[in-house]
Amino acid sequence: MTIMDFTVEEINLIAIYKSDSKEKTIYRLHDMYEFMEDEMQIIATSSARKLSAMTDAEFALSKFIPADDDWGDLSE
Protein backbone atom coordinates (compact mmCIF):
# COMPACT_ATOMS: atom_id res chain seq x y z
CA MET A 1 0.00 0.00 0.00
CA THR A 2 1.37 3.39 -0.93
CA ILE A 3 0.23 6.98 -0.55
CA MET A 4 -0.90 6.79 -4.19
CA ASP A 5 -3.58 4.27 -3.16
CA PHE A 6 -5.38 6.95 -1.11
CA THR A 7 -7.89 9.44 -2.52
CA VAL A 8 -7.43 13.17 -1.98
CA GLU A 9 -10.29 13.08 0.52
CA GLU A 10 -8.68 10.24 2.47
CA ILE A 11 -5.31 12.00 2.54
CA ASN A 12 -6.93 15.20 3.80
CA LEU A 13 -8.80 13.34 6.55
CA ILE A 14 -5.74 11.37 7.61
CA ALA A 15 -3.71 14.60 7.70
CA ILE A 16 -6.23 16.01 10.21
CA TYR A 17 -6.09 13.00 12.54
CA LYS A 18 -2.53 11.77 11.90
CA SER A 19 -0.57 10.75 14.94
CA ASP A 20 2.92 9.36 15.46
CA SER A 21 1.84 5.81 14.65
CA LYS A 22 -0.49 4.05 12.26
CA GLU A 23 -2.44 2.49 15.13
CA LYS A 24 -2.99 5.83 16.88
CA THR A 25 -4.10 7.43 13.62
CA ILE A 26 -6.65 4.67 13.05
CA TYR A 27 -7.82 5.02 16.65
CA ARG A 28 -8.30 8.77 16.21
CA LEU A 29 -10.34 8.21 13.04
CA HIS A 30 -12.56 5.72 14.87
CA ASP A 31 -12.81 8.00 17.91
CA MET A 32 -14.27 10.84 15.81
CA TYR A 33 -16.46 8.59 13.64
CA GLU A 34 -19.71 9.27 15.53
CA PHE A 35 -19.28 13.03 15.06
CA MET A 36 -18.88 12.79 11.28
CA GLU A 37 -21.58 13.12 8.66
CA ASP A 38 -22.43 10.05 6.54
CA GLU A 39 -20.08 10.84 3.65
CA MET A 40 -17.18 11.53 6.02
CA GLN A 41 -17.88 8.24 7.83
CA ILE A 42 -17.48 6.42 4.52
CA ILE A 43 -14.17 8.20 3.89
CA ALA A 44 -13.00 7.50 7.46
CA THR A 45 -13.83 3.80 7.13
CA SER A 46 -12.01 3.55 3.81
CA SER A 47 -9.03 5.46 5.21
CA ALA A 48 -8.79 3.20 8.27
CA ARG A 49 -9.03 0.09 6.07
CA LYS A 50 -6.21 1.30 3.83
CA LEU A 51 -4.08 2.38 6.79
CA SER A 52 -4.53 -1.08 8.32
CA ALA A 53 -3.18 -2.62 5.11
CA MET A 54 0.00 -0.54 5.33
CA THR A 55 3.06 -1.69 7.20
CA ASP A 56 4.37 0.51 9.98
CA ALA A 57 7.40 1.29 7.81
CA GLU A 58 5.19 2.39 4.90
CA PHE A 59 3.19 4.60 7.24
CA ALA A 60 6.34 6.16 8.68
CA LEU A 61 7.58 7.04 5.19
CA SER A 62 4.24 8.41 3.97
CA LYS A 63 3.52 12.12 3.97
CA PHE A 64 -0.17 12.90 4.31
CA ILE A 65 -0.22 16.54 3.18
CA PRO A 66 -3.63 18.21 2.79
CA ALA A 67 -4.49 19.18 -0.77
CA ASP A 68 -5.02 22.83 0.14
CA ASP A 69 -1.52 23.17 1.62
CA ASP A 70 -0.23 25.11 -1.40
CA TRP A 71 1.88 22.05 -2.28
CA GLY A 72 4.02 22.43 0.83
CA ASP A 73 7.75 22.05 0.41
CA LEU A 74 8.24 20.13 -2.82
CA SER A 75 11.85 19.35 -1.96
CA GLU A 76 10.80 16.67 0.56
Please outline what is shown here.
The protein is mainly alpha-helical and 76 residues long. It has helices at residues 8-17, 22-32, 38-53, 56-61.
How is the secondary structure organized here?
Layout: H1 8-17, H2 22-32, H3 38-53, H4 56-61
SSE order, one letter for each helix or strand: HHHH
CATH class: Mainly Alpha
Number of domain units: 1
Instruction: Report the major sheet.
Output: none
Fill in the CATH topology: Arc Repressor Mutant, subunit A
Total strands: the figure is 0
The dominant shape is globular
The whole-angstrom Rg is: 12 Å
| Secondary-structure-derived class | mainly alpha
CATH superfamily: Sporulation protein-like
**Residue share in helix:** 55-70%
DSSP strand content: under 5%
Distance between the termini: 20 Å
What's the average pLDDT? 90
CATH architecture: Orthogonal Bundle
Poorly predicted runs are none
How would you characterize this protein structure?
The protein has helices at residues 8-17, 22-32, 38-53, 56-61. It has one domain: Arc Repressor Mutant, subunit A. By secondary structure, the chain is mostly helical. Helices cover 57% and strands 0% of the residues. The chain is built from 4 helices and no strands.
